[in-house]
Design a protein that fits this description.
Elements: H1 2-9, E1 14-23, H2 26-50, E2 63-66, H3 67-73, E3 83-92, H4 94-105, E4 123-130, E5 136-143, E6 149-153, H5 165-172, E7 183-190, E8 199-203, E9 212-217, E10 220-229, H6 241-254, H7 260-265, E11 269-275
Parallel strand pairs: 1-8
Antiparallel strand pairs: 1-3, 2-3, 4-5, 5-6, 7-10, 7-11, 8-9, 9-10
Bound molecules: flavin-adenine dinucleotide.
Flavin-adenine dinucleotide binds near residues 162, 164, 187, 226 and 274.
């Protein structure tokens, strides 16, 4: 659903990306092929129900690739990889999409009858104001550059502060129980030779059961995984060195001609973020 909405509303910020699951034998290839055909079918079914314009369904159906085709697409591939199953997914530029949403929200009449929004950055929510009945009727915000506080009257407040949502809920009602657990995602950038510029790889069965993507991204290879519990809710999470070891060790399974240390020495940049 999410993919359908993004593609049909902002096709200029998205592109189909071919992703391949490397497989050692034909049985695994058939197994993943069947699963991906179901995934593709659900997506196609949803597309015809949610696509609001005449944009054509953009994705080709999954395909089984032989060893020759795999070796042509990827350098250094493990000789045990005899097959691959390719499918198409959507890749979009999240920063531009976010900015696009924000700027569109400022337009008067973009939604007929509605005025554009006022938007503020470098502004922190500090507290709620309430009426005599204890109902929220405003928010106290602070300009993070001048440190000046000001109040905005509200009819409705939407708490979309990610991992900090519980903190905001507690300001309203200190007795509420926390709902959020922070998940950590670590991504590394490797030279473009570790991926094909039109094809990514997905490793569906890592040693701890998580999935790793190796995707073409701005002429480089973006390697990442998510879904690891992080103990604190902070804006500046530190990258756990073990996360880099984990990624390199898993990559080494598909690129055995490169040692783990060699892979680590190729890392151009890395970062960690938190989400819930
Ligand atoms: C490395 C990594 C890779 C990921 N990859 C993918 C992916 O491939 N696909 C995918 O679908 N998802 C991915 N995710 C998950 C995705 O990023 C999150 O699910 C998504 O960003 C959540 O959006 P959100 O708006 O709810 O929260 P957030 O994006 O966390 O936004 C919350 C905002 O609230 C602001 N805020 C917090 N407290 C205050 C306050 N007191 N005052 C004012 N503002 C405040 C924060 O500054 C922040 O801007 C990834 C996450 C990470 C970390």
């Amino acid at each position: 659903m999410e993919r359908n909405f993004v593609i049909s509303n902002a096709d200029y910020l998205t592109r189909p990306t071919c992703i391949i699951l490397p497989c050692t034998n034909i049985f695994w290839a058939m197994f993943y092929y069947a699963g991906l055909m179901i995934y593709h079918g659900i997506f196609k079914y949803g597309w015809h129900r949610t696509c609001t314009n005449d944009y054509q369904f953009p994705f080709r159906r999954p395909k089984i690739l032989n060893k020759k085709a795999m070796n042509k697409k990827f350098k250094f591939l493990n000789p045990d990889i005899n097959y691959g199953v390719s499918y198409q997914d959507g890749q979009f530029d999240d920063v531009r999409l976010c900015l696009d949403n924000i700027l569109t929200a400022t337009l008067d009449e973009y939604i007929p009858g509605m005025k554009g929004a006022n938007i503020l950055n470098y502004t922190a929510f500090k507290n709620f104001t309430k009426n005599g009945l204890g109902k929220i009727n405003g928010v106290i915000l602070q300009d993070q550059i001048t440190k000046k506080e000001f109040t905005v009257k509200t009819r409705c407040v939407v708490n979309c502060t990610g991992i900090h949502s519980d903190q905001i809920r507690k300001i309203d009602d200190p007795s509420v129980e926390p709902r959020m657990i922070a998940s950590e995602g670590t991504h590394v950038i490797l030279p473009g030779e570790y991926v094909n510029k039109n094809h990514g790889l997905i490793l569906p069965a890592t040693e701890d059961g998580r999935v790793i993507f190796v995707l073409p991204y701005q002429d480089k290879a973006l390697v990442g995984t998510t879904d690891n519990i992080y103990p604190e809710k902070t804006n500046n999470p530190k990258t756990d060195p073990n996360a880099l070891v984990f990624l390199c060790r898993e990559l080494q399974k598909i690129y055995p001609l490169r040692t783990e240390d060699e892979l680590r020495s190729k890392i151009i940049s890395y970062w960690t973020g938190l989400f819930f």
